Amino acid sequence: MSDKPTPPADGECCENGCEPCVWDTYYEELRLWQEEQSRQQKESENAE
Predict the structure, then answer these.
(1) Cβ contacts of residue 12 below 8 Å, gap of 6+?
(2) For the range 24-31, what are the long-range contacts, defined as Cβ-Cβ under 8 Å and sequence gap of 24 or more?
(3) What pTM did the predictor assign?
(4) Cα angle 12, 10, 31; round to 5
(5) Cβ–Cβ under 8 Å, residues 22 and 8
(6) From CA 26, how far away is CA 12, in angstroms rounded?
(7) Whole-angstrom distance, CA of residue 27 vs CA of residue 7
(8) Of 2, 13, 21, 37, which sits most exposed with the smallest number of CB within 10 A?
(9) Could you read off the pLDDT of 9-24 as tens digits, one per residue?
(10) Alpha-helical segments (H) within the chain
(11) How far apart are the first and last CA of the chain?
């Protein structure tokens, strides 16, 4: 199981509309982490 992504620290976002923003990257990593958690949960339920 991988660790949950850490949100950007205060001041990491420069608020200049960068593409991708550090927040875009964080939310994508969080989405992938959540999918992984759901998949692992389903696998553990099926193993029982």
Answers:
(1) 22
(2) 29/5, 30/4, 30/5
(3) 0.84
(4) 70
(5) yes
(6) 12
(7) 8
(8) 2
(9) 999 999 999 999 999 9
(10) 22-47
(11) 18
In the block, residue with structure tokens 């959540």:
34
**Assigned token pair, 1:** 């199981």
Structure tokens at 7: 């949100």
Token pair 């990257």 is found at 25
Q: What pLDDT does 38 receive?
A: 96
Q: Is residue 4 pLDDT above 90, yes or no?
A: yes
Which residues contact residue 5 at a Cβ distance below 8 angstroms, ignoring those fewer than 6 apart? 26, 29, 30, 33
Q: List CB contacts of 20: < 8 A, sequence separation 6 or more.
A: 28
Residue in the structure block whose two tokens are 């339920």 = 45
